[in-house]
Amino acid sequence: MGSTITSTSIIFLLTGVPGLEAFHTWISIPFCFLYVTALLGNSLILFAIITQPSLHEPMYYFLSMLSTTGLGLSISTLVTMLGIFWFNVREISFNACLSQMFFIKFFTVMESSVLLYMAFDRFMAISNPLRYAIILTDSRIAQIGVASVIRGILMLTPMVALLIRLSYCYSHVLHHSYCYHPDVMKLSCTDTRINSAVGLTAMFPTVGVGSVLLLLSYVLIIRTVLSIASPEERKKIFSTCVSHIVAVAIDYIPLISLSFVHRFGKQAPACVHTMIANTYLLIPPVTNPIIYSVKTKICRAVIKILHSKET
């Protein structure tokens, strides 16, 4: 056991893919591809929504929020992950670790919240189309966005700030290529029950309650759609919801997989934990632009923008 060190002077060591350190350069190739795809895809969607008046609708405003969270998540992990794979730079200061942890948690919470808002948007558009534009005005959507940011900051700041009070006298080696809240807590040699309680309290309203409300929204959407007499109308409405259902699945499946591996997969190789943890943060920002471009007007808008740049 090492001596206790004040939190602000700690240097943590991040981990790449355990057992495959010799192949980090090769492993970085698919990760680079994913990062470029996420950054370009989400940036194009944001640019299209901002510049194309035909996309100034509630559904696309929420999609722009989702793209912002995708960019935020990608940028939050890019430096440390590629730093490890390319240059074997594993050191990260305590303050930098807390900052990265906050932004990862913040954008993850925002992503879950936006998916819920998008489900509510679809429910309102299907069940009450006459009042849809009255309820979801531009100013109300802006208020929802600002309220979500404030709520995220208020919820997550105590969870991250409480790590400062802990003493770290064991190993300073983290098990991921980014700072993960439970990972940092495990390195403490002081009582972390308060931290665990605050962390659970912070995440439960979004991940727990949010998941239930999301499921309830889609139950109500399906019930409303099935009550529509015309099969053509049903097919059309379901097709508009498919992209969102797929996006929700892609967002939650890696999160659930990571939780199960951490809880029940202690015998699994360390590289499995690492790959699932990296997938959990990278796959949604990569796939969301692709999914939403296929079934919406985004694809046509992006093609129009790219064509205008060529001419």
Poorly predicted spans: none
In terms of DSSP E residues, the strand content is under 5%
Strand order of the largest sheet: 1-2
Order of helices and strands: EHHEHHHHHHHH
Count of DSSP strands: 2
Helix content: over 70%
Estimate the global geometry from the Cα principal axes: globular
- Radius of gyration over all CA atoms, rounded: 21 Å
Terminus-to-terminus distance = 66 Å
Counting helices, strands and paired strands, the structural category is mainly alpha
Look at the structure and give the mean pLDDT.
85
Q: What's the story with the biggest beta sheet?
A: 2 strands, antiparallel
Per DSSP, the total helix count is 10
Organism: Theropithecus gelada (Gelada baboon)
Transmembrane segments: 32-50, 62-89, 101-120, 141-164, 202-225, 237-261
Keywords: Cell membrane, G-protein coupled receptor, Membrane, Olfaction, Receptor, Sensory transduction, Transducer, Transmembrane, Transmembrane helix
Membrane topology: Multi-pass membrane protein
Provide a concise account of the structure shown.
The chain has helices at residues 24-51, 58-87, 94-127, 129-135, 138-161, 181-185, 193-226, 231-264, 270-294, 298-310; strands spanning 11-13, 91-93. It has a two-stranded antiparallel sheet with strand order 1-2.
